Each structure stands twice: as C-alpha cells, then as structure tokens.
C-alpha cells in the first residue's frame, strides 16, 4: 500500500479511545480527528488520510451503532483489526486532589463502568458528548471541583493531571477496531487470517440455514454473524460475517462457493490477520 499522507483518521476529539487505538496500532502515523464516522470514511476516500480507524464492537456494550451500515457502502477495505482495552482514568487540572473532586463528566457509556469508584468517593457524574472533548473543556475552563473520566492519553494531550487510574469496575472491557484503506490486501500476512463479508440470502425457504451449512460441514469457524435491515425495510436483511481463514484455504473456498449458491449478493470487506489479543482471549476461554 502506497502511503500518501501518513495520516490515519479517527472519530472524536484528540485523546479519544479511537485516538489511542491509532497510536497503538499505527504509531508511526499522524492521527486525524474527525467529527463523525462518515467524516472518517470521507477523509480516506478524498485522500486526506491513508487509513481509517473505526470501532465496530465493544465487549460490554456490543456492536457500535450504525457502523455495519456504513462499512459496506464505504468503498474501503479492512486491512487489520485492533483490540484496545478501555482503561478509565479520572483527571482534573494540575494541583487538584482526588478529595477535591465532587463531580465528573464523561461519555454516557463510561459512567456506569466506574460506578463503584464514584460511589466509594461520593462523586456525582453527568454525561458529555465526548470524554476527550470534556477533558479539553475542563483544561480551558479550569472549574474547581470538576473532573473528567477519559483515557490517560486525553490527560496527556490536554495538560490535565491523572488523579486515579484503572477505575473501571470490570477490567475486561475491550473495544475492537477495524483499520480500513482504499485498496484491499488479500495477502496471507499471518498464520491466522480472518475474512469479513456481507451477504443477502435468496428469497427461498431455509436459505440462511442452507447458506450457513457449508461453513459447518467444512469445519470453518464463524466468529461473528449479525443481521440488520437495509433501506428501512423489514424484508430486506443483510448479514455481516467474520470467519476464520483465508479465502484461498480449501475449506473456506468450498464454504464460500456454497454460500454464493444461496445468496443474491456477496461482498468481501477484507482479509486480514487476527489481532494477537484475540488469540490470548480464546486461550483463556
């Protein structure tokens, strides 16, 4: 892949967890913040960035809303996946003590994840549109008694002081990101590859059951299968699937051939290596 800008686009303010994912997965690239997921995709399509970092699912809250609608229409291709542990830090402006903090702001999904810590310290919380944005606001306003829950990267970027680290109640919360680019890479870059595709089944009885049968009979592990409506019509359903293997593997090749027989459309979104954390998690299951 030819790099033209050395930028990777993400949704959110500097210091967002998506920004942290960019730093971890592509440390040599400059991160480009964007307002929406659509803006992230457009940044790559318009060559303002080479890659997009998009969150697709979280181990606590499930899939990211609307993202599966955007991926097939984006014109981009999945090149890698990245798993990032969500570590929540409480921060405030320098010189503030933890005992001084009476109220915190954070993205809505972070607040219940640190409920135990907040209760223990008698701290109330309110929702912000973006945790990293709340950190930027606090750095600018310097309101006494106010803190923010966000990534440690947000504190670093906005000049805040971390008062407590890893305050989440459960230390397994992980977000899965997809790294996407304009050109596909179907090369076998790892011993463990994943293939992602979307499809619609033909309008015949038991079509989905029959379409999935090829993966079972050929011993192909399907790690994800999700359905969602398209065009707001209940009868128009598209399926999003992740499977283990490379399309050139004989078993997966046979399974995909059988799938094509029962589908009205089948589009490959990407072929890419499994993140090492995926294997580590499966070893502990």
Automatic annotation (TrEMBL):
Pathway: Amino-acid biosynthesis; L-phenylalanine biosynthesis; phenylpyruvate from prephenate: step 1/1. Its EC number is 4.2.1.51. The keyword Glycoprotein does not apply. Pfam families: PDT. It comes from the Bacteria. It catalyses: prephenate + H(+) = 3-phenylpyruvate + CO2 + H2O. This is prephenate dehydratase. It comes from Paracoccus sediminis.
